[in-house]
Specification:
about 350 residues, alpha+beta, Phosphatase 2c, domain 1, four-stranded antiparallel sheet, 12 strands, protein serine/threonine phosphatase activity, PPM-type phosphatase domain-containing protein, PPM-type-like_dom_sf, PPM-type_phosphatase-like_dom, PP2C
């Protein structure tokens, strides 16, 4: 048996419904595919693709005859019915990156779509901590992702990716930073479907935003949720995995993240505070989050305030930061009994 650890961009893009659906659908889909195949990479890939296909098909499930209806017929539906349909398809209209790690007795498999990361923390023979990245960022700034976009949209080289402003990141057709994500149907649906959705949404009470047609969306899809799969065979030196959204790595490098968690483990073994980082929390993810915020422009007082904000308020001050730290069996030698009970995953044989 395998145990899983997952991160979904909880705040998502343009609302939270997609991420909320992933927490329910993706583990179930993976279990379904593993039941018919022990090929873990294939099962992970098939689960990701199946869940995204489900999200993109929501309009056809929410409205009988959607495929054959005209734009005028959809626009003429009563507003109460259109609101009901809109609410049913919100998981497709919003979006989320996702990363799923599967851990066996000697293996780790990672599936990811988007710009979250998985970093493996290991101890070298000299006693220093070593960071190994198990994912690549799926962003337009990644040359491989950019090359794929240009290859798939050869007549749109000027508009397939550009910046909002001079110092901003490259974005897919000027909108989305990640090149892979669940939902985000504005970048995937055929234009005929998008025009129908625009008619459906027109004039409805706003749920944060209306359905803006993307100016340079000419030949979708531009974004997909097919994951990259990585695999590593664990060694006695491999102590933990850090699975986190891109907000963490905007503040800290991979090496910095591993050193912070490693220093946390060292302090747990020695039962003393680290010389490098003040250990305030038994929860290593909270400790890592605090260090990430302190590395930026915030002092201790502002960090404490940021930690008390509701998820919906965080985006006004910083990017969302979601963190999961998975301690592997070699980390046992560092952890005291309390930390072991609270943070060490129970790996099934």
């Amino acid at each position: 048996m395998l145990d899983s650890a997952n991160i979904y961009s909880e705040l998502g893009h343009a609302d939270t419904q997609c991420a909320e659906q992933l927490t329910e659908l993706l583990p179930v889909a993976l279990q379904k595919h593993l039941a018919t195949s022990q090929d873990v990479p294939r099962a992970l890939t098939d689960a990701f693709v199946a869940v995204d296909d489900h999200l993109l098909n929501l309009p056809f499930q929410a409205l009988d005859g959607f495929d054959s209806m005209t734009i005028e017929q959809i626009a003429a539906l009563p507003s109460t019915e259109r609101i009901k349909i809109r609410d049913m398809i919100l998981p497709a209209l919003s979006g989320s990156c996702a990363v799923m790690g599967y851990i066996g007795k000697e293996d780790v498999y990672v599936a990811h779509a988007g710009d979250s990361r998985v970093v493996l923390g290991s101890m070298s023979n000299s006693g220093s901590w070593v960071a190994s990245t198990l994912t690549n960022d799926h962003q337009v700034g990644n040359p491989n992702e950019m090359a794929t976009l240009k290859k798939e949209h050869p007549d749109e080289l000027e508009t397939v990716a550009f910046r909002h402003c001079l110092d901003g990141p490259l974005r897919v057709i000027g909108g989305l930073v990640p090149t892979r994500a669940f939902g985000d149907a504005r970048y995937k649906w055929p234009m005929a479907v998008q025009h129908k959705i625009s008619a459906l949404m027109k004039g409805l009470p706003s749920r944060r935003r209306q359905w803006p047609m993307l100016r340079y969306c000419l030949t979708p899809p531009y974004v997909h949720a097919r994951p990259d799969i990585s695999h590593v065979t664990l060694t006695p030196q491999d102590c933990f995995l850090v699975i986190a959204s891109d907000g963490l790595f905007e503040e800290l490098s991979n090496e910095h993240v591993v050193n912070i968690v490693g220093d946390f483990l060292n302090s747990s073994q020695n039962k003393t505070n680290s010389a490098l980082y003040e250990i305030r929390h038994e929860n290593v993810a909270t400790h890592l989050l605090r260090q990430a915020l302190k590395s930026g422009k915030y002092d201790d007082r502002h960090v404490s305030r940021l930690l008390t904000l509701r998820p919906s308020e965080c985006r006004n001050w910083r990017d969302d930061i979601l963190i999961q730290v998975v301690f592997l069996k070699p980390a046992l030698k560092f952890l005291n009994s309390t930390l072991t009970l609270n943070t060490l995953p129970k790996l099934k044989e």
